[in-house]
Design a protein that fits this description.
InterPro entries: GRDP-like. It holds the Pfam family GRDP-like. With about 425 residues, the chain is mainly alpha-helical. The protein has 2 domains: about 95-225; about 240-435, no CATH class. The protein has 15 helices and 2 strands. It is globular, with a radius of gyration of 28 Å. The termini are far apart. Residues about 370-375, about 385-390 and about 405-435 have low confidence and may be disordered.
């Protein structure tokens, strides 16, 4: 029996770098018609370009999650990362200052930010956050409309700059342990309970009332909202804002309008729907109007040109329309119901309709004039209900935009529950019309 000597293992093949031209990063935009100057309203091309950007951000997020997990981003298909951290980006920030040996956490940083801006108020006459733009219009007060010593919007500046300045500055000292913004809240509550102090700060006579007016209470809440849970140097807590925007990006990726065969027609419809939404919002200032995801895409795209968006909203409504990305669940539900009914009443079309690929193609093919007393929306509804659109997954449809709050799942209008709900709504509106 002979033993075979194993041959020497082969070397792996060698590869030489290929001389390839780098991919043109702008090639995917070649088919879009983009204006070099901002326009008053989004166009289908700008909305599609925005979608390309959102897809790129989502792809980058997934790449990070699959590899090194930088910035606390983990694999979207894996279980949520439960590892507790103590860094600046973590909830439980914990750090020992090497200079003073003090304990640093988010509560301390928030108080330090408020203390620093109190110093700027005293030394440089810089107003506190939330005391410049009026809540009704989103614009600054016209110069000279009200004196600084009586304007409600500037009441927090008078309160902090005159009465509470020393107490705020003393919040961070060796004698004080673990200061929080709740300490600031207590100082303000005790101060506004003093009627003589209110008269003094508002330049009122002894015979005039010494209580806070409603607009002064609103001014205090607006000011405190800029500091309450905000560690960053900005008026908005950017960490939470990025997370909420990430939810919206993921939904846009799942809908995948970018690769839909009816993408351009979808963009045209959602831009029209956005202009109608802004009209409803401007004419119903006392109600919360809630966008659907398709409206939200056009809304976000419009805000990418801030100057033209500002001009458009102020010229149309007389005020700057802010996209509030923090709305309570109850307000979302009530506002969405109001918006749906108002939209359907004004325009005779369904507000929350499915915009998956299948439904969008059917809608683009069946759009036409009213025939035999049947409206376009009714014909489209019938076409959807009798087609395979009933199998449209609810998580792949554009309904209420809830990336700004947690809300109960609303059934898809393409699902059996959603169709039943839609028929009930239609029968109720018919009964109301007959009763009128």
């Amino acid at each position: 029996m002979s033993l075979e000597i194993p041959s020497k293992p082969r070397k792996p093949p060698t590869y030489t770098p290929q001389d390839t031209t780098p991919q043109d990063l702008t090639s995917s935009f070649a088919t879009l018609t983009l204006s070099p100057h901002p326009v008053s309203l989004p166009t289908p091309s700008t909305c599609l370009a925005h979608l390309k950007l959102l897809h790129a951000i989502q792809a980058l997020k997934l790449d990070i999650g699959y590899t090194d997990g930088l910035f606390g981003i983990w694999d979207a298909k894996a279980e949520i990362n439960e590892i507790e951290g103590s860094g600046y980006g973590d909830r439980d920030l914990s750090h020992i200052c090497h200079k003073c040996s003090g304990y640093v956490n988010h509560d301390l940083l928030r108080v330090a930010k408020f203390r620093k801006e109190t110093e700027n108020l005293i030394m440089r006459d810089w107003p506190l956050g939330g005391t410049i733009l009026t809540p009704n219009t989103g614009l600054p007060d016209a110069a000279g409309t009200l004196p600084m010593n009586s304007a409600a919007l500037h009441f927090p500046n008078r309160l902090i700059g005159i009465e509470l300045r020393s107490k705020i500055l003393d919040l961070i000292s060796p004698q004080r342990a673990n200061p929080t913004m709740n300490d600031v809240k207590i100082l303000i509550e005790n101060a506004v309970a003093n009627k003589d102090l209110i008269r003094k700060l508002n330049n009122r006579k002894l015979t005039e009332p010494g209580y806070l007016r409603r607009d002064e209470r609103v001014a205090i809440r607006l000011m405190m909202a800029r500091y309450w849970e905000n560690t960053s140097i900005f008026a908005l807590e950017l960490g939470g804002a990025v997370i909420r925007q990430g939810v919206f990006i993921e939904k846009m990726k799942n809908l995948d309008w970018l690769h839909s065969p009816a993408a351009t027609q979808t963009m045209e419809r959602l831009i029209l729907k956005y202009t109608r939404f802004i009209t409803i919002l401007s004419e119903n200032a006392m109600h919360v109007c809630v966008p659907t995801l398709d409206v939200d895409l056009a809304w976000h795209t419009a805000q990418l040109s801030p100057q033209t968006y500002f001009t458009y909203t102020t010229s149309l409504t007389g005020k700057f329309i802010d996209h509030d990305d923090k709305v309570s669940e109850d307000a979302l539900e009530t506002g969405f119901e109001f918006t749906s009914k108002t939209y359907e009443k004004l325009y005779g079309e369904i507000y929350s309709e499915c915009t998956c690929w299948y439904c969008e193609v059917i809608r683009s093919r069946h759009s036409g004039p009213r025939l035999f007393g049947t409206s376009k929306s009714e014909k489209l509804n019938n076409a959807f209900h009798d087609s395979a659109a009933q199998f449209c997954p609810p998580d792949n449809s554009a309904h209420i935009s809830t990336h700004n709050a947690e809300s109960r799942a609303r059934p898809s209008p393409c699902s059996p529950e959603g169709r039943t709900r839609q028929r009930i709504r239609e029968s109720e509106s018919t009964s109301e019309g007959e009763g009128a």
